[in-house]
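In practice, a research group might receive sequence data for several interacting partners and want a quick structural hypothesis before committing to experiments. The following worked case mirrors that situation: the sequences arrive first, and a predicted assembly follows.
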Amino acid sequence: MTRHTLRAALATGAVLMTGAFVLSGCGGSGFEEPADTGSSGGLTSSDDALALLIGSSGEAETTAVEDAVAAWSKDSGVKATVQTANDLNQQLAQGFAAGSPPDLFYLAPEAIAGYAGNGSLKAYGDELKNKDDFYPSLVDNFTFDGDFYCAPKDFSTLQLIINTDLWAAAGLTDADVPTTWDQLTEVSKKLTTNGVVGLGFSNEYQRLGAFMAQAGGALVKDDKAVANSQENVDALTYVKDGLTGGYFGYAKDLGAGWGGEAFGKQLVAMVIEGNWITGAMKADYPDVKYTVAELPAGPKGQGTMQYTNCWGMAADSPNQKAALDLAEYLTSTDQQLAFSKAFGPMPSIQSAADQWSSDNPDLAAFLKGADYAQFMPTQDGTQEVITDFNAQLESLKTSDPKQILDSVQSNLEAVVGG
Amino acid sequence: MPSAVATPRRAGSSGIRRGEGLAGWIFTAPVIIILGVFLFIPVLMALWVSFSDWNGRGSPFSSRVGFVGLENYAAVTTGGGLTERNFGIALRNNAWYVVLVVPLQTALSLFLAVLINRAVIRGRGFFRTAYYFPSMTSSVAITILWLFLFNATGVVNEVLSWVGIDGPNWFHDPRGIIHAALGLGPLAGPDWMVQNTFLGVSWWEWWSGPSFAMTAFVLMGVFTTSGTFMLLFVAALQNIGSELGEAGMMDGATAWQRFWYITLPQLRPTIFTVVTLGLIGCWQVFDQIYTGTQGGPAKTTLTPAYLSYQAAFENQKWGQGAAIAFILFVIIIVFTLFQRWVLRERPVSKRRIRQYQVKGSTS
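A structural hypothesis for the assembly, expressed as tokens:
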């Protein structure tokens, strides 16, 4: 009996070993060492086709990118395929782990530190011919350890969206558009009537950060955690007062998934959102009339948040020369204006600004934000801290702003240093 | 039964049955290889990742990947930072889920099975299908249905309002239901509970109860799994002969006594199966969280399974992700062993035996 068990175990082991060899054999490049190209060094070049992975907002965006890539393929003679991701983070991670990542892909600034840190990304920013055309704050956003990693794809800022009908019904005019916090409080109170809350926003740092910026605060300054500064406390206290006063409201507390939905359903008269809201309004709430104004200035002047993605390039890509050429093409003036027309983002380059403003006079406030917008911290590990911060902000109404910020400070210090 | 029957000679490696062992291996080889390649080896690889500093690029077996011992496990369980706290919160949430779902679903499925098993009920087939239906529907579809039902202005709150209850904003209310029922805030506990923490989470938070969002998931868990387990109970009930029940009836046992003292003990193996499957399933909650709430509101639906995914794929901490998965594995094993011990066959105690003995008997 024992002998049998032993033999069975040995046989099983042998089969498993064979399985392992089969696996490693089949895996091909799977178990090989990826070339350690890192952040510097020249670009690879070959005849290989390019693979793009995008996290698309919808049909319009997918078609626009596919058309642009097809046009580039025709010109350059390099084949390229576009794949839309269901879950961009996961699919990218899988690609890197398997050693077969896409050549070009949408990349969020907060993901750069992690991927750059493990050598998955090629820092090609300095090779771009249109490098100096990008807004400097966007270049900063994609710079990690002194290297400019990737070409900003487009960008958005947060501003104040106002429901014109509710505005007029409250007896307000163009002259009442708030330019200070006090005025914002005032009009919010006036707009808060029969079930409508004056100003709404999502319960997250990604929106409330605008108030922190206006108060002169930030989460990270010069690579140091400054989360529990007096400026930030002031900003959150101001928001908390509005929430408890009932003239500010979190979209989720009002029964909406995000600010745009709350605004579209007319649960709020004003909302803080980015320019993606225009697409949602057109598609889902075409009857709601609105204007876009710049967010009021806080005690330390104007401030808002900016959001952007870039075209990341894989360090393991065999044809980086072509990928660079494609990235340049996709971020060129004409192409970005075409994208903007197709699905609404703002061009990431300054040379397209005038054209964009005259094409979209109603949305000019969003572009003005480029001058004073802050971006979220991008250091490795900050994403987790912000997730925790957001979790705490959900109960801002009943908690102490200073206490929340103190915990964020200690969490941040653990990842970026104090 | 005679005990001295000669056992037939085992099929050995000699004689007429020489080739059978080999044939056996050949027939089972495909499954062994498939399980080995797609299950056993990946599990070993994950185990290695949990002890390494692999950062998600290239092979975890390349020379650049170092062995870091228990570092990843330590970061999750004793790190003192956000990672430990997240794990503590996830464990707390999931523990409440297990504590509520496992007994509820076992009791409910047994109840349904007994109902359906009775010959008198009409349309048994219909009820059997109706109860089983939620189990067949994809968890993603049911999660979306749940998000609608438990919306702030959804059907559930509408129904609650008929009886004068002002329903909570289910999926956005981060308060624990115990705290909410007591009308207490997140910091209103006694000092010894607020100050002392386990895994970065204070005792006060451990006892806050599942949040409203988690409660909605608890109801969903019970709703979707009861049908499956009901079928297991129905099968077991149909295997129980009627003799013991009839004997009990002759002795004057009531219906409840017959169920409690005669039917239930015979269902012990099935109960064991149901509770084990329930424990495993409940500790692995993932689909609902991924499609429904991503851990929100305020992390109250974060579970270890989702945290493991988040750590690996979103935060690029593959070692920690794998470590969480293996801690979860150990938790499941421990719970299973524990309930096996609870449900073990016990010898009848002397006190109990005495009840059955004829009075005055000397033996």
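Before designing any experiment, note the following. The interface with chain A takes residues 25, 29, 32-33, 36-37, 40-41, 55-59, 61-64, 81-83, 85-86, 151-153, 169, 172, 174, 185-187, 296-299, 312-316 of chain B (CB under 8 Å). The longest helix of chain B spans residues 82-117.
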